[in-house]
């Protein structure tokens, strides 16, 4: 996520405070108009083209200077964009850059002609009429050339952005290359729990304690959904509040984010809401055009900074947000039941904005990692710390007072996965569950026990023994 974010969402730094960006795009500008949609869409580019944002500022110089390095990174990522796509992107960029230089030169000439005509009209005599007519002819000639160049610029611009906005940011130099087997374990925290009995899985524990329900929900909310009840719900609220309280005390700004976001924000974070298949739920476009359910809070947090500047004195900015996350995940219905990879869940996310230096963003990432370790340690969990680095989202530094920022994010608390770990680590032989001391104030107890009676009884179809419906006569 962080590896793709800031080049496209561009929170900007202003040494003297907030400044609007000067190259905003208006939908009325004929140079930004299109007659028809193209099959290879890019929602982020369309967002700018329609005047909602400025056009993305992509730093192409490093790519043009070292295409082999970028091609190697693309090959290692194994993504949709392949090394063979780079030459076409570079060629279109170079053609677009040359065309824009030609347009800027003609626009400067046009402005000079306009100023000359304006000055001549102030004190023009009959003897100056040929000069005046010559300037007007020159102006018409320039406008005619520009009228032919603007559509070509629009075509090249679309071809360039549709491809170039799929380029990822650079990968962090410390990121391991390969699959999960290549990950390095940095250190292990805590002791693996030992049991004198056969341990149960989290779902069996939760069902016996009547705090998790996942059976018979296909007609309610589909597969991979679940209910948390009683102490299960309190465990979720306790985990969220425990995490939020800790991070707010550490100086994080608490945030809430929209659950519905436009596709441009997802694409700015390296996600493709219109891909097939996609992890993103799309709202019916016939009713609400271009709205999608957020699968993680950092997308909404990144959108909060979109098209805005941040004063250097306010950096690093650190935010924390608890949100409901929606993900398509698997759709076959054949996966094992449980809270792993569900369609909806609650998560607390840390999000940060730093200056453009890799040293600053790497330090913030280390701070986030330390907080993750602290949270899991206080919950009494046994875990390994490995390497999973993308890159702080960031672009090259531009001229003037504005620079591209870096963005960093890390999950502080993914509720379902922590519930799995807590239930399976703290289970007791008698079927009860010990509540970690850090969560006891939120549950009001140190132990969760099974209920003395069954609060719900299933009376749906396919039951051999079913109670009579209201008003139904007893069978003889």
Automatic annotation (TrEMBL):
EC number in record: 6.1.1.11
Record keywords: Aminoacyl-tRNA synthetase, ATP-binding, Ligase, Nucleotide-binding
Pfam families per UniProt: tRNA-synt_2b
Binding site for ATP: 327-329, 342-345
Region Disordered, annotated ranges: 20-39, 454-476
GO biological-process terms attached to the record: seryl-tRNA aminoacylation
Pathway membership: Aminoacyl-tRNA biosynthesis; selenocysteinyl-tRNA(Sec) biosynthesis; L-seryl-tRNA(Sec) from L-serine and tRNA(Sec): step 1/1
Residues of the Aminoacyl-transfer RNA synthetases class-II family profile domain: 199-458
Amino-acid positions noted as binding L-serine in the UniProt annotation, renumbered to this chain: 296, 327, 349, 409
UniProt site (Important for serine binding): 411
Enzyme superclass (EC): ligase
PROSITE patterns listed in its UniProt record: AA_TRNA_LIGASE_II (PS50862)
One term of GO molecular function: ATP binding
Family: Belongs to the class-II aminoacyl-tRNA synthetase family. Type-1 seryl-tRNA synthetase subfamily.
Xref: PANTHER family: SERYL-TRNA SYNTHETASE (PTHR11778)
Protein name: serine--tRNA ligase
Source organism of this protein record: Spermophilus dauricus (Daurian ground squirrel)
Lineage of source species: Eukaryota, Metazoa, Chordata, Craniata, Vertebrata
